[in-house]
């Protein structure tokens, strides 16, 4: 065997593995001493042991207590680093010491009273104890080198040849060998660029996960994610920038799953995610949303900013496939189906979940892109008067989704709140409402006000909501009475219970306030007493069985009567029949907002409706 030209004569003949041990050094896959030294595996013992103080903890396992003292005496004479030597006189004692404390290396006697030394090493393996080991033997030639390597023994040392230099070098070699073995094991299972599991480890974990799910009748999800727009990053900024982006993406994906789940890089810009122990299959849609949403924020580094997205395919065990290969294949096929449709979305192999994902669950990433693409739009529904008075127009926020079509606000409100998007949506809503009002006022239709929904309940607690709305009205040259904020009764009660600061500020700003869906949940008449309302919007729930049910009719009549006495305008929502309309008119309801009276209209159609109404009023005889 060739020797390292930089080693001394003493190192070649006296330390670590001598010439008689050449088969031990050459056998197996572990790099021999020369390779370790060239790789810089052990410049100092402190470095390879990881001991920050420079000291190294050694556990001597031998029934011969005198041997432990000899080792301690020899290591006390070592120039550097310092050593701390502890002893264990049996295999069981060694296991207890290793369970209670961390040691940098074990000096193990081949023969123990309660167990053979090699058998104890096998116990270490079964228990996951990965401590470097130097085996002390009466005759190293009798030890099978292949078996020693397979067991993870770092070096062999004869008892009769113990001396300071040889002992230190043997400990040093065993520690370095374990360090490099661990490094090689890590490289074999993990992606060096991102630190994620690689394809081999992912398949191994998926194999075990499927077996566990089969035994426990559990569910799991396999997801394949391919980045959209990543090629442009490499082409524009170079491969170093691409590597940086992959590292950032890896961190974002890892932050979306539990510690028990697995995120892997399969190669290039393709990733795989294993979600184990799904409580229910629908849980996979939540994880899918989080993964795609995590890719949405721009990636900034070295004065650069890039935007990427992801195409995600999902397959579920046991619904879609019963084995790892099938699950991987189906998730991959679903991912390519997303790619074929333009990417930046998710597809489930399960048609039911896919439909739920695409038709029922809105992705936060899609919602963020709606701003960039100008996909939000206002519709307008006139509150048709039942008696003389001011005309109100209800603004209805909708989303023109490129795939789902028109999406009602109720379907994306929760996602917007969870994703912190309510603030920008409200800003856009108020700005657009002021723009439309300005257009109508310029056309001469000053007899109407616009009713704008306040989406989240928590908005009332914003200390500057009223001021912000007031500032926008002033900027548009509109009076404060031109806009009316519609708030659900639940939100008003929450504000009252916390002191009413939000309501007070709205009143101080002189803004109109309407309670929306009155009677749908709480229906307390306290609102008429304690809140400065301008409008009370009656929910369709209070119209149920009216006018046929005498009690329901009596209650509704009472609510309208008290509201009128308090000077509050009453608008009924969800009127479905002619009989309901006539009853509402009879009891003094001011207006109705319902599809039966006038459906929601786009801006141009609503402007035409206002024009016709204005012209009709102008020609009406006094």
Structural overview:
The chain contains 25 helices and 21 strands. The chain has 622 residues and is α/β, with parallel strands linked by helices. The chain folds into three domains: 9-189, Rossmann fold; 199-361, Reverse transcriptase/Diguanylate cyclase domain (Alpha-Beta Plaits, 2-Layer Sandwich); 373-619, Alpha-Beta Barrel (TIM Barrel), CATH 3.20.20. The strands form four sheets. Strands 13-14-16-17-18-19-20-21 form an eight-stranded mixed barrel, surrounded by five helices. A five-stranded parallel beta sheet has the order 2-1-3-4-5. The chain has a five-stranded mixed beta sheet with strand order 7-8-6-11-12, with helices on both faces. Helix 5 links the parallel strand 1 (56-61) and strand 2. Helix 11 (230-237) runs antiparallel to helix 12 (239-254). The longest helix has 26 residues, at 164-189. The protein is elongated and about 125 Å long. The model is unreliable at 1-53 (pLDDT under 50).
Observed structural traits:
single chain; 622 residues; alpha/beta; Rossmann fold; Alpha-Beta Plaits; TIM Barrel; 3 domains; 8-stranded mixed barrel; 5-stranded parallel β-sheet; 25 helices; elongated; disordered N terminus
DSSP summary: helix tally? 25
The name of the CATH architecture of the largest domain is Alpha-Beta Barrel
The description of the largest β-sheet is: 8 strands, mixed, barrel
Silhouette: elongated
CATH class of the largest domain: Alpha Beta
Number of strands: 21
